[in-house]
């Protein structure tokens, strides 16, 4: 019965897939579904005016000035033509009629489809300060263009405040320093990344910024940011203040699911989908926007994960499922990396910050290490600092559920 239902949903040449969200997951779905043999119509809808592009380089190579922003492109007009995709860029999707698989656009148009992919991602969280738009965020190509313009008028040695010491904040600080400016990072928590990576790992990463001369102020509460004629002033809760040239806020992301509020889909911190990324018959969701049933080492878990690799894997999974009726066999193993303060942090799995952590290779003195996360005696994650080969060798600990004891006996990171 399940097989029959799936066959009815499988793609036929006469079908029309509307993909909403022309970012990484949306574009990767287009590539994957064509690779898997779908020859029907595809329409790609995006609210940004740009062809699909990649975000990780924005806070790294592009912001530091090493790459022109064009180099972050994922698709060219030639590639779009090759994939026979109708583009609807610069238009906002405002609603979805699930039963009719019809996407409504804010300009009044309606796109009638047989299948819909929701790939609307997430957006930067905005902090409400008096300085308003003078506080930059770092999510979109236009954000980095505006930020680059603001940084370009500063003099070498001028201060740039970065609110948030998480991944985006640390990468921005690294890039700002590479431009000859002086980043100062303000973090609300006692240590950066403590709420994501947990107490042990965040303490092992402590000092990375200081080693390269980036000032990090922890336990900081910012009361306001005020724009003056000659720059900005950060006002702290304790009454102190600091004048800076530019302010960047990197304080997390919000999921772009509001446009689906009346669709009838289950929306709960993202579009809730099953293990095959299905939200409703012939409606799927992929990437940052998808809250999906993940076959974790400890059983099924409902998760939403904002990682580049997850967006790729989701796109490939849904395309395969809709073209062949069978999902890929391999378990999805979330992968994340961040380049900050001259180091590469990499993580496999989706561990909780409260999981047990054991450093099993390298050491703090070498500034190179690999650690295992575990819960109930089962490996839930692997995190490494500048140990890329050892990390990838350890992936098999997550491909199959592995006990901590078995992992310690196997030591895959050593081979
Ligand atoms: C600066 C930066 C650096 C990053 N670095 C890393 C990294 O080093 N490692 C890592 O693993 N991950 C990184 N990430 C995360 C990674 O880029 C995301 O997980 C990935 O982009 C998710 O892809 P997506 O397609 O789901 O969403 P997005 O890339 O957000 O794309 C969604 C698209 O849909 C559009 N959209 C939204 N609503 C609508 C609507 N109603 N109608 C039409 N279009 C709409 C959006 O504007 C956007 O263009 C980084 C993210 C950022 C912002």
Layout of secondary structure:
Elements: H1 2-9, E1 16-20, H2 24-35, E2 41-46, H3 61-64, H4 77-82, E3 85-89, E4 93-97, E5 102-105, E6 110-112, E7 115-118, E8 122-124, E9 135-136, H5 141-152, E10 159-163, H6 167-178, E11 182-186, H7 194-197, H8 199-205, H9 208-211, E12 215-217, E13 222-228, E14 231-236, E15 241-244, E16 246-249, E17 253-255, E18 271-273, E19 278-280, E20 283-285, E21 290-296, E22 299-303, H10 308-324, E23 335-340, E24 343-349, E25 356-363, E26 368-375, E27 378-385, H11 388-393, H12 396-399, H13 404-410
Parallel strand pairs: 1-2, 1-7, 2-3, 7-20, 9-16, 10-11, 10-16, 11-12, 18-21
Antiparallel strand pairs: 4-5, 5-6, 8-17, 13-14, 14-15, 19-20, 21-22, 23-24, 24-27, 25-26, 26-27
Helix pairs in contact: 2-10
The site of flavin-adenine dinucleotide has 37 residues, from helix 2, strand 2, helix 10 and strand 23.
Keywords:
alpha/beta; about 425 residues; FAD/NAD(P)-binding domain; about 25% helix; 3 domains; six-stranded mixed sheet; binds flavin-adenine dinucleotide; 13 helices; five-stranded parallel sheet
Description:
The chain has 415 residues and is α/β, with parallel strands linked by helices. The protein folds into 3 domains: 2-123 and 254-324, FAD/NAD(P)-binding domain; 126-251, FAD/NAD(P)-binding domain, CATH 3.50.50.60; 351-414, no CATH class. The chain is 25% helix and 32% strand. The chain has 13 helices and 27 strands. The protein has helices at 2-9, 24-35, 61-64, 77-82, 141-152, 167-178, 194-197, 199-205, 208-211, 308-324, 388-393, 396-399, 404-410, and strands spanning 16-20, 41-46, 85-89, 93-97, 102-105, 110-112, 115-118, 122-124, 135-136, 159-163, 182-186, 215-217, 222-228, 231-236, 241-244, 246-249, 253-255, 271-273, 278-280, 283-285, 290-296, 299-303, 335-340, 343-349, 356-363, 368-375, 378-385. It has a 6-stranded mixed beta sheet. A 5-stranded parallel beta sheet has the order 9-16-10-11-12, with helices on one face. It starts with a helix and ends in a 5-residue tail after the last helix. The mean pLDDT is 96. Flavin-adenine dinucleotide is lined by residues 20-26, 45-48, 55-56, 58-59, 92-93, 119-122, 138-139, 168, 256, 259, 287-289, 306-309, 311, 336-338. Flavin-adenine dinucleotide binds at residues 20-26, 45-48, 55-56, 58-59, 92-93, 119-122, 138-139, 168, 256, 259, 287-289, 306-309, 311, 336-338.
């Amino acid at each position: 019965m399940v097989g029959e239902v799936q066959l009815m949903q499988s793609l036929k040449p006469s079908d029309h897939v509307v993909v909403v969200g022309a970012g990484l997951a949306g574009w990767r779905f287009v590539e994957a579904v064509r690779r898997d043999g779908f020859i029907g119509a595809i329409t790609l809808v995006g609210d940004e005016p740009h062809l699909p592009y990649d975000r990780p380089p924005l806070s790294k190579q592009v912001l530091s000035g090493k790459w022109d922003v064009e180099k972050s492109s994922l698709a060219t007009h030639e590639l779009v033509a090759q994939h026979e995709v109708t583009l609807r860029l610069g238009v906002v999707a405002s609603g979805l009629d699930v039963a009719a698989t019809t996407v409504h656009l804010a300009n009044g148009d309606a796109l009638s489809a047989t299948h819909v992919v929701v790939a609307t991602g997430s957006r930067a969280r905005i902090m409400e300060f008096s300085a308003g738009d003078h506080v930059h965020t770092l999510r979109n190509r236009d954000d980095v263009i505006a930020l680059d313009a603001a940084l370009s008028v500063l003099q070498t040695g001028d201060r740039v405040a970065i609110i948030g010491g998480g991944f985006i904040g640390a990468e921005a600080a690294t890039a700002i320093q590479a431009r000859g400016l002086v980043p100062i990072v303000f973090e609300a928590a006692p240590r950066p990344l403590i709420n994501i990576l947990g107490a042990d790992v965040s303490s092992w990463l402590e000092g990375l910024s200081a080693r390269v001369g980036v000032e990090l102020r922890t336990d900081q509460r910012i009361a306001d940011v005020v724009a003056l004629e000659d720059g900005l002033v950060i006002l702290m809760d304790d009454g102190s203040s600091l004048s800076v040239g530019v302010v960047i806020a990197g304080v997390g992301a919000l999921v772009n699911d509001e446009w689906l509020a009346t669709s009838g889909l289950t929306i709960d911190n993202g579009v809730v989908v099953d293990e095959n990324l299905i939200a409703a018959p012939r409606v799927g969701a992929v990437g940052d926007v998808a809250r999906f049933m993940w076959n974790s080492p400890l059983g099924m878990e409902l998760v939403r994960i904002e990682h580049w690799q997850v967006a790729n894997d989701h796109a490939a999974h849904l395309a395969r499922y809709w073209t062949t009726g069978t999902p890929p066999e391999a378990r999805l193993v979330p992968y994340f990396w961040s380049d900050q303060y001259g180091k590469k942090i990499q993580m496999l799995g989706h561990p909780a910050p409260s999981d047990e952590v054991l450093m099993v290779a390298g050491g703090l003195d070498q500034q190179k290490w690999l650690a295992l996360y575990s819960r109930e005696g089962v490996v839930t994650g692997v995190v490494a600092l500048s140990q890329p080969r050892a990390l990838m060798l350890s992936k098999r600990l997550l491909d199959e559920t592995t006990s901590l004891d078995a992992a310690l006996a196997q030591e895959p990171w050593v081979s």
